[in-house]
């Protein structure tokens, strides 16, 4: 808990969805932030006699929720948006890898700024980036991404990716865009030791994240898992995204993706997978039994025609599930708050129809579910005393939402709600939909310039 001498911010008169274990909600309540922690949350006005109150916010007409938690993304793709728009996953990768293989540190930093800015201004307080493209001589890509997140003021998990299966080995990436087995493991360990913070209120953490079964050798998968567990960090990769991937695994390994992951040490409560669209009953049972997490990316799955993930069945089986933007070359909006709505609507097209997901289940996926998947549910993902002060005030009294009586229904079913204020670690980073930590207009200029530079380099190659 925060010390009594901490500076306090008092927020009052708002609806509150705590997303705690009991889904506690208040039609009109208060929050008290003390330093970087939530000190109290409850109905009515804040307690009288609070000391060191530096700010009072009348949040009438707003809904307060935990900050959104993104569990899967590829920041570098911000500068290759709008390409290969009519491709499935494998053809999309073949089309774009030659361009991605020419990114450098300056491009990666600008792309990270663009990706982070779009998420943060839409209510994301914890971001995640799975970066796995490390062309030879491209500079300190991991460092540039961490720097961009720190400057933005968001909580951040860097999944340090890797690839060692190139075209010559039957993979998809160009030969010059992959690392060696030893090189990938060494660089990953260095990234963990340089950037990972294991403390309760850490702003930056690192996970070990070989890219996918079809771009990574079995040895890199196996040794990557051993490395992560030796260092005490989490594991992340892509899994069961398409029918083509399942066919690839059967042809190359003689088994489906989930069995392959289990054979290489990649199931467990310290693991989360992106997508998991094509899962059998036994696959889901294995994830539930081992508490392997899933990053559900509904918009990207639709964009690449991958299919509909069986999220209701996963939740029933006890699988931790969060939401992911995925890379902005397959989800050009780059926003997580729209994924609340898309997750609900797309899952209702599946077998469970109208019973698939409710508004509150969708909100839980984007907050507490994401915190579970990233291994941070003790610190973030719900509004409870003692947790870190990561929260969002959504403006719900405008034309877009005012006639919807229930604010959570309005947030999920309605148009994307404006963010009046977003706090991370007790620090406000968004005010009235604009970032307070970076110049959005300057970021727009730099990302456009870097996208154009990358396009020219790729064209010349």
Automatic annotation (TrEMBL):
The keyword Hydrolase is assigned to this record: yes
Keyword list, A-Z: Hydrolase
Record domain Amidohydrolase-related: where: 64-427
InterPro entries, alphabetized: Amidohydro-rel, Metal-dep_hydrolase_composite, Metal_Hydrolase, MTA/SAH_deaminase
Enzyme class, broadest EC rank: hydrolase
Pfam families tied to this protein: Amidohydro_1 (PF01979)
Keyword Hydrolase attributed: yes
GO MF assignments: 8-oxoguanine deaminase activity
EC number: 3.5.4.32
Gene3D superfamilies listed in its UniProt record: Metal-dependent hydrolases (3.20.20.140), Urease, subunit C, domain 1 (2.30.40.10)
PANTHER family referenced in this protein's UniProt entry, alphabetically: AMIDOHYDROLASE-RELATED DOMAIN-CONTAINING PROTEIN, AMINOHYDROLASE SSNA-RELATED
Protein name as annotated: 8-oxoguanine deaminase
Provenance organism: Streptomyces cinerochromogenes
Classification lineage: Bacteria, Bacillati, Actinomycetota, Actinomycetes, Kitasatosporales
